[in-house]
Specification:
Number of helices: 3
Order of helices and strands: EHEEHEH
Radius of gyration: 13 Å
Strand content: 35-45%
Helix content: 25-40%
Strand order of the largest sheet: 2-3-1-4
Number of strands: 4
Largest sheet: 4 strands, antiparallel
Length: 90
Amino acid sequence: MKKTVITVVGKDSVGIIAKTCTYLAENQINILDISQTIVNGFFNMMMIVDIAAYGKDFGTLVDELEKIGEEMACIVKTQREDIFDEMHRI
């Protein structure tokens, strides 16, 4: 299993979850855990996913999700779980 943390933040609009999850499903990325909330009109989603079956390199995943985020006027960040853990351990 290769866990990755994906966050999506932006003004709430129709289709944010659908577009993000469609990309993940089309690329064999399994969602292990997901949390989303809307605060004062701003959408925030955090997902833990397994990219073990993903057929491309990690940089491509980051770039493609960022592009989807731009299309939705959202910020999408993708981080490997081990790096995410180290950054937040300090």
